[in-house]
Each structure stands twice: as C-alpha cells, then as structure tokens.
C-alpha cells in the first residue's frame, strides 16, 4: 500500500514556494553530474522509497516551517537565530544555543573585489538564503539547516538518555568500523560539508570539551564526534579553514573532523552513526549510508529526487539490526519538498 503523509497539493505548493524568494541562482554546477545509477540492487529508487513509507509522527510541521522560512534575516548572527526561533523553525534550546555559538559569517565567501550588495557582511551572511561558497556550490539557507537539526535532535537526545549510545552497539552491521569512539559518545556524519557551517553547528551540540555541568540548564547531549565529508578538494580545504577561524577548539578536542570522502559510500570506518545529515540531493537513496545508521534508531535526514527536479526531504530511521539490507528495517517519512544541489558520483 502506498502511504504518503503530505498531500500532493501541498507538495506542489511547498516546491513552488521554495523557489520564490531565492535571491541568487543557487544551482550552477561545475561538478560533472554523471548519469543516474540504475542498479536496483544497490540503490533504492525514490519511487521505491515512497512505497515503504510508514507514517510516524514528526516533530516538525512542514507547513509551519514554510510560512516562516526565507524571512529570518538578521543584521547579526544573534538576530538571525532569534528570527528562526520566532518563526518556530528553531524550537529547542540545544539547537538555538549551537546556532548562537557559530557565526555564519565565517563560512561565507565574501567578494571584496566589488561593491555589490553581497560585500556587506552584515547583510549577506545572516540572510535566510543559500549563498555561494565557490566551486559552484552553496551554503544552504539557515532555515533548512535549522529544520534539519530539529529533526535530528530528538534522536540525539534519545541516545543521550539511553544506554544504546554505547559505541559497541550495532558493530556487526559495520564490519570495517574501528569503533575508536569512547563509550557512550554520539557519532554524527555530515555528508557534503561544503562551507563547514553545519558540521560546526553539529560540533557545538556535542562539544567534547564542555562537561555536562558546563551546559547549564539545557538538557545535555552526550559529547561526541562529527565527521564532515566532502568530495571536492577545494571545499575540504575551505571547510577546514572556515572552522579554524573561530572554532579551532572543535578540531583540538576531536569533536569535529573533516575528511575527503564520497557521500554515496559514507564513512564506514566510524559507523554506526546516531545521525546522518546529507546536504546534497541523492537521485536514489544511498543504501550504504542507510546501513551505516545505528541499528537501534539511528536517523538520517536526506533530500532525495532528481537533479533540478522535484525533491523531497526524508527522515529515515533504522529500526532493526540486520546484516543485510531490508526495506522493512527502515521507517521512512517524507518531510517537505526541497531543492538541493546534487549528490554527485565520484571515483573516490
Ligand atoms: N551543507 C553544506 C554544503 C551544501 S552544498 C553547507 O551548508 O555549507 C552540497 C555539498 O555537497 C557541496 O559542497 C558538494 O561538493 C558536496 N557533495 C556533492 N556530492 C558529494 C558526494 N558524493 N560526497 C560528498 N560530498 C558531496
């Protein structure tokens, strides 16, 4: 039976809405986009993924998100974050605190060679819009980052309050895992880290250098590791340099690591992951990534859909441990219509 949680009319509306206020052309690529892989044994098609949807409650309402989205501009980082909170896109203290700690202006390429509007740092970095980061890629709009983090947060809280976060859990699904994380730590994979911004915000949420005591009244998450992976050399460097500007301590404490790797294959070395965020649209759902989720409820937020066409953001939860891939081992929920740059195939 085909079950889909969002009406077709809404999806068309959300998709159209997503295009309206784009201040820049966000989709010019200089990465070759190879033909879609049609090996059905390896890749779950986006049609198939809809067939296995089992509706569960989601913490966020896509409709509410759309109403506030694109309007959360600020003159400062704090103002941008406050606007996201007012629009109820940022809902939790954990996500808000992490956003406040990471100044988005450190992750944008500011062209000072011209006098265009985008030179005005106070204007561009805190605009609720995607921005160019070079190599034909873009940093996503703040509301998309916030939305993705709010989707991921309940899972991080769940693993922080249960024994399941122990690193040994789920290792048999990941034979190449080195499991060198300390027991009880959270592991997060950010695929397509680009500017390094979201990787850094995630790092602030699980910062190893902050003790539970130092976290004050906000319910603490376990400390952990965030692995940002990126396929373009220049963006791996950009990411690292951006993080070094004001967030070097996240490297020093081994909270954040940036690695050149192909998102289609993930990073099995450090799997299983409690959460995976994918920042580029996969035309089919990468099964390798699904199998790197923690088997006791690891969650992935991923856009799936054709390059330049109708894409949906999905929340995929791994609900059963199984050595081999079975569709029924995953709960899949479509969240909202989106438009992302493509997750490219590479020879890595
Ligand atoms: N989330 C980031 C970047 C989003 S743009 C940010 O907000 O800054 C998408 C990124 O995915 C780009 O940097 C692109 O180079 C990267 N990407 C595309 N295909 C990839 C792949 N197969 N593996 C890893 N990264 C990939």
From TrEMBL:
The lineage of its organism: Eukaryota, Sar, Stramenopiles, Ochrophyta, Bacillariophyta. It is found in: Cytoplasm. It comes from Chaetoceros debilis. GO terms for cellular component: cytoplasm. Its main location: cytoplasm. Residues 171-181 have a biased composition (Polar residues). Gene3D superfamilies: Vaccinia Virus protein VP39 (3.40.50.150). Residues 1-26 form the signal peptide. Its EC number is 2.1.1.77. The keyword Ubl conjugation does not apply. Residues 163-182 are annotated as: Disordered. The keyword Methyltransferase applies. Keywords: Cytoplasm, Methyltransferase, S-adenosyl-L-methionine, Signal, Transferase. This is protein-L-isoaspartate(D-aspartate) O-methyltransferase. InterPro entries: PCMT, SAM-dependent_MTases_sf.
């Amino acid at each position: 039976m085909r079950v889909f949680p969002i009406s077709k009319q809404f999806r068309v509306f959300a998709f159209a809405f997503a295009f309206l206020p784009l201040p820049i052309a966000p989709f010019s690529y200089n990465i070759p986009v190879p033909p879609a892989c049609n090996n059905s044994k390896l890749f779950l098609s986006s049609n198939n993924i809809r067939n296995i949807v089992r509706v569960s409650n989601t913490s966020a309402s896509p409709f509410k998100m759309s109403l506030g989205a694109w309007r959360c501009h600020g003159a400062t980082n704090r103002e941008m974050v406050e606007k996201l909170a007012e629009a109820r896109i940022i809902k939790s203290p954990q996500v808000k605190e992490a956003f406040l700690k990471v100044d988005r202006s450190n992750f944008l390429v500011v062209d000072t060679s011209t006098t265009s509007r985008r030179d005005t740092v106070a204007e561009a970095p805190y605009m609720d819009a995607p921005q160019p980061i070079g190599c034909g890629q873009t940093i996503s709009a703040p509301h998309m980052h916030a939305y993705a983090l709010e989707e991921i947060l309940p899972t991080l809280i769940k693993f922080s309050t249960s024994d399941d976060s122990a690193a040994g859990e789920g290792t048999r699904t990941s034979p190449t895992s080195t499991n060198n994380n300390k027991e009880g730590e959270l592991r997060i994979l950010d695929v397509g880290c680009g500017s390094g911004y979201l990787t850094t915000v995630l790092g602030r949420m699980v910062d190893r250098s902050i003790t539970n005591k130092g976290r004050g009244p906000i319910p603490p998450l376990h400390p952990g590791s965030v692995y940002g992976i990126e396929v373009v050399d220049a963006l791996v460097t950009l990411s690292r340099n951006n993080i070094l500007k004001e967030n070097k301590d996240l490297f020093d404490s081994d909270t954040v690591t940036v690695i050149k790797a192909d998102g289609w294959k993930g990073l099995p070395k450090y799997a299983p992951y409690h959460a995976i965020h994918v920042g580029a649209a996969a035309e089919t759902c990468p099964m390798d990534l699904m199998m790197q989720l923690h088997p006791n409820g690891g969650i992935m937020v991923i856009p799936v859909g054709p390059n330049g066409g109708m894409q949906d953001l999905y929340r995929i939860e791994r609900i059963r441990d199984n050595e081999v891939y079975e569709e029924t081992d995953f709960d899949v929920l479509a969240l909202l219509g989106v438009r992302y740059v493509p997750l490219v195939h590479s020879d890595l």
